[in-house]
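Submission sheet (multi-component)
Chains listed below:
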Amino acid sequence: MKTIQAVRGMHDITPDQAGHWSRIEHAIAEVFSRYAYREIRMPLVESTRLFHRAVGEATDIVEKEMYTFPDRNDESLALRPEGTAGCVRAVIENGLLNTPQKLWYSGPMFRYEKPQKGRYRQFHQIGAEVFGYDSVEVEAEMLMLNQRFWKSLGIEKSVSLQLNNIGDSVARANYKNALVDYLSGHKESLDADSLRRLDTNPLRILDSKNPAMQSLLNDAPALGAYLSEDSVRRAEQLNSMLAAQGIAVEQNDRLVRGLDYYNDTVFEWVSNDLGAQGTVCGGGRYDGLVEQLGGKSVPAIGFAMGIERLFLLLEAQAFAALPGNDKPDAYFIVAGKELQPYAFALAENLRNARPDFAIMHNLSPGSLKSQFKKADKSGARYAFVIAEDEVANNRVTVKDLQTGEQLQYALQDDLQELLAGL
Ligand code: ATP
Ligand code: MG
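Outcome: structure written.
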């Protein structure tokens, strides 16, 4: 019979990988709490309309990447392609906007993309959204928070920050005209994607991955010349705040981000170690979105990072630097079935006394030799040996599998002596 496989672009996280995943997630969650961000959890499924309105009709996501389906009552629903739209809906719906909010979330996102390394159809993001502050200090603190993520994961040397200011809607509208004028004069050199975007979303041509487009853009008008005084000041202030904190910044005039809702500050943390899918984390300010989705006018800013891309970066170098591992601490070797009640009781006592201690109990014991082999293979630090002699004398033999040292412990009174030695 033909086996059924996972859907293309959607992957299992195997037990070998899951330990690393949760270490990444814990490290990030811990950093969030140091900056007083609180977690929010949103549904995976939302009304399709939400993404049309929030993400924008002329974006890659809405045009060609959404998993959309009719519910049984014919309402159109979508698997969430990103977290910001749902988070904004949630803060409006739950009345959370009377005070400023610093929120984070994590979970799977879905986009019908061409699967390749670092690009999947189900992928996972950790993101954050901050509502209610318009000062540039919010940008600065958010980027400091990001920087601390990379430090705590040990990848600060492999990611760097790219920054741009894309201005307000007036600046972008004026710039859009100038850009369309310029590109319309070079229509014969535009690729199919860019031709289509010329009518729908010309700014997106700026971050085309096609080198031919990039060289055509060298002589295009620059967005920076269209910015308001406020935007220019914001960019300057942010740059000097980041410099004061020792965060290196590369100004990237072509950074516009793929979603429609951004204004002013946009940023990406990129790596050279990931091939074509180099962006680990991206975000920006979106002061108009809350009102656009029916809430009051509240300034907002957010970012999202791809956990798979973090995983790939860490896989290349730093997993060893993260604390903890998922190997057992002790492997219980039991010389016969009739000795299991004694072994179980000892294992339970040990679990009570040492919540941090992972015990792998051999549940179908074979010869002592084969059990020692399995203990070695498990990666456990200690083998606990329970044979007839141990049971008869109420003892346990503990072998340190790293040093080879073997000690006998009496278990008459309690486990204290034994525990002190572990
Ligand atoms: P890209 O230009 O790589 O398509 P994007 O601009 O579409 O990225 P965002 O929507 O800003 O990405 O998502 C934020 C982050 O989520 C990205 O920087 C990336 O790390 C991750 N991400 C986005 N799409 C995918 C995907 N299909 N597979 C894996 N990770 C993804
Ligand atoms: Mg994309």
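Remark: The chain has a mean pLDDT of 93.
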